[in-house]
């Protein structure tokens, strides 16, 4: 049975344990988050005027990498086919001054820069910049500009430290300062590594003797961070729905071949 346990939730990140799965599933979830969850990003730019020090191509690349809020409630982001809806982000600016992402005017109030303080280009006195940028839904497998964030995972492990190890109290204090769960018995302490934990060099000689690391079978600690396009919990939810839909499609194709 697959189980999820949330360890930490912040506005831009979430950490959770998923249990009852194997490495292929864990990696499939990671890859789906990075490459399959759709977001809005600038895909084409029409320049009407550019007197700045940067070429059109450089500014277009900068615009493409600006995270745009993606209204997940309005689109079926877990669908295998994407909506071809296009949003226009326009700009008309004159120097002197810095042009920021917040200066972009969107044709859709729900699709706009997630951070208004991203620099685009600095204009000198008399320099002008005018363009229309067109944002569309896309997936990270086609270009990194459509990746919704970053995700990584690790095995959930337990570090058993015998009380025969000199200075074992130091390890206990270090783990507690890191916010790691520590269980203590008469013979040992057990540190659950819900986040990365590195033993000080002085304890390395005790590995395999008084200190041993145990991998908890079928359990992984995931950390997911959002760029701002989508709420971080929606990224995980959409990725799981996409995985299920792809699995259903694969099973249906197998049944067709069997028939």
Report the end-to-end length measured between terminal Cα atoms.
31 Å
Helix content estimate: 10-25%
- Supply the helix-strand structural class: alpha+beta
Question: What is the H-and-E element order?
Answer: EEHEHEEEEEEHEEEH
Assembly state: single chain
The top level CATH class name of the largest domain = Alpha Beta
Counting DSSP E segments of at least 2 residues, the number of strands comes to 12
Beta strand %: 35-45%
> How many independent structural domains?
2
Number of helices: 4
Low-confidence stretches are: none
| Shape summary | flat
Q: If you compute it from the alpha carbons, what radius of gyration comes out, rounded to the nearest whole angstrom?
A: 24 Å
Protein name: DNA-directed RNA polymerase subunit Rpo3
Subcellular location: Cytoplasm
InterPro entries: DNA-dir_RNA_pol_30-40kDasu_CS, DNA-dir_RNA_pol_insert, DNA-dir_RNA_pol_RpoA/D/Rpb3, RBP11-like, RNAP_Rpo3/Rpb3/RPAC1, RNApol_insert_sf, Rpo3/RPB3_RNA_Pol_subunit
Catalytic activity: RNA(n) + a ribonucleoside 5'-triphosphate = RNA(n+1) + diphosphate
Commentary on this structure:
With 259 residues, the protein is α+β, with helices and mostly antiparallel strands. The chain folds into 2 domains: 108 residues, Alpha-Beta Plaits; 108 residues, RNA Polymerase Alpha Subunit, Chain A, domain 2 (Beta Complex), CATH 2.170.120. It is built from 4 helices and 12 strands. A hairpin with a 3-residue loop joins strand 10 and strand 11. Helix 1 packs across helix 4. It starts with a strand and ends with a helix. The mean pLDDT is 94. It comes from Thermococcus kodakarensis (strain ATCC BAA-918 / JCM 12380 / KOD1).
